[in-house]
Every structure is written in C-alpha cells, then in structure tokens.
C-alpha cells in the first residue's frame, strides 16, 4: 500500500526551527524515520515537503486519483487554508492529520484546524513520533 507523507510550510527547517517547540529532529531525520517505519510495516512511503500551497494541492490531487492513504502535517495552512481542506475532502483513502506540537496548548489561532473535520483522525502533541503512529495505524487499520 502506498502512503503519502506530506508536509507543509517551514517543516523543511525542522531541527533548527524553534527546537523548544518542535524538537531537535531534523527534516532529514523525519524522512528517514518515515521511510524506515514504512519498510518495517510493508508500506510504500513517499515523503514530501513544500512551502508552496499549489504544490501541496497537486500532491493531494495525485493521492486522490490513486486512492492512496495520506499522512498530512498541513503546518500553518491547517489554520486557514480552505483550498487544502477542499483537496483533503477529495481523498478516497484515509487521511491522518499530524501536528508535532500540541496545537491546543498554544496560541488561540492554532487551536482550530480547518482540515480536521475532513480527516479520518488527528494526532497532535506527540512530537515526530506522531508520524510513526500514523503510519502504524494505516498499516493495521480495518477498512
Ligand atoms: C504544526 C503546528 C502549526 O500551528 C504550525 O504552523 C506548524 C507546525 C505542528 O506540527 O505542530 O508549522 O503543524
């Protein structure tokens, strides 16, 4: 089974970006973690990151066309992008929304994600381990 692990803006800077909030794991480490987890679980994991909204929309369309599962950290777009939400609503496979930090314990503007209502489930506040847990869920979930 193919799983797209898609990451929104500024997540390419993990490791140096506010380590007190997002931890010391670099983006390269995160890619490694997802690929290794995928191999262990027998998933074909494709990991991508972009700072360009149209690029993420294209990847979501690709996943929708394939009926693939998606793990998505929409980053700041979570809080206001109706375009990202609409693209997520077109997915035919399961969608797990992941946030590294606990968005509910942060600034009020982060408390709401416009994506969550169209996600299968949401993991937040568990650091980059959330990605591993999301992949584990997708590998073992019953339809
Ligand atoms: C984030 C939380 C968002 O509020 C923020 O804009 C991000 C990362 C997280 O993973 O905790 O860029 O999605």
TrEMBL record:
<comment type="similarity">
    <text>Belongs to the type-II 3-dehydroquinase family.</text>
</comment>
<dbReference type="Pfam" id="PF01220">
    <property type="entry name" value="DHquinase_II"/>
</dbReference>
<protein>
    <recommendedName>
        <fullName>3-dehydroquinate dehydratase</fullName>
        <ecNumber>4.2.1.10</ecNumber>
    </recommendedName>
</protein>
<comment type="subunit">
    <text>Homododecamer.</text>
</comment>
<feature type="active site" description="Proton acceptor">
    <location>
        <position position="22"/>
    </location>
</feature>
<feature type="binding site">
    <location>
        <begin position="100"/>
        <end position="101"/>
    </location>
    <ligand>
        <name>substrate</name>
    </ligand>
</feature>
<comment type="pathway">
    <text>Metabolic intermediate biosynthesis; chorismate biosynthesis; chorismate from D-erythrose 4-phosphate and phosphoenolpyruvate: step 3/7.</text>
</comment>
<feature type="site" description="Transition state stabilizer">
    <location>
        <position position="17"/>
    </location>
</feature>
<feature type="binding site">
    <location>
        <position position="110"/>
    </location>
    <ligand>
        <name>substrate</name>
    </ligand>
</feature>
<dbReference type="GO" id="GO:0003855">
    <property type="term" value="F:3-dehydroquinate dehydratase activity"/>
</dbReference>
<keyword id="KW-0057">Aromatic amino acid biosynthesis</keyword>
<feature type="active site" description="Proton donor">
    <location>
        <position position="99"/>
    </location>
</feature>
<dbReference type="InterPro" id="IPR036441">
    <property type="entry name" value="DHquinase_II_sf"/>
</dbReference>
<feature type="binding site">
    <location>
        <position position="79"/>
    </location>
    <ligand>
        <name>substrate</name>
    </ligand>
</feature>
<feature type="binding site">
    <location>
        <position position="73"/>
    </location>
    <ligand>
        <name>substrate</name>
    </ligand>
</feature>
<comment type="function">
    <text>Catalyzes a trans-dehydration via an enolate intermediate.</text>
</comment>
<dbReference type="InterPro" id="IPR018509">
    <property type="entry name" value="DHquinase_II_CS"/>
</dbReference>
<keyword id="KW-0028">Amino-acid biosynthesis</keyword>
<keyword id="KW-0456">Lyase</keyword>
<dbReference type="InterPro" id="IPR001874">
    <property type="entry name" value="DHquinase_II"/>
</dbReference>
<feature type="binding site">
    <location>
        <position position="86"/>
    </location>
    <ligand>
        <name>substrate</name>
    </ligand>
</feature>
């Amino acid at each position: 089974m193919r799983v797209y692990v898609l990451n929104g803006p500024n997540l390419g800077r993990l490791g140096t970006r506010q380590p007190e909030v997002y931890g010391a794991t670099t983006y390269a480490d995160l890619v490694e973690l997802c690929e290794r987890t995928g191999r262990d679980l027998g998933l074909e994991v494709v990991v991508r990151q972009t700072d360009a909204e149209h690029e993420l929309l294209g990847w979501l369309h690709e996943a929708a066309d394939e009926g693939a599962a998606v793990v998505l950290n929409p980053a700041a777009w979570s809080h206001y992008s109706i375009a990202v939400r609409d693209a997520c609503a077109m997915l035919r496979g399961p969608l797990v929304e992941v946030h590294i930090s606990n968005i509910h314990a942060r600034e009020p503007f982060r408390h709401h994600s416009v994506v969550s209502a169209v996600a299968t489930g949401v993991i937040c506040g568990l650091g980059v381990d959330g990605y591993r847990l999301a992949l584990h869920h997708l590998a073992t979930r019953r339809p």
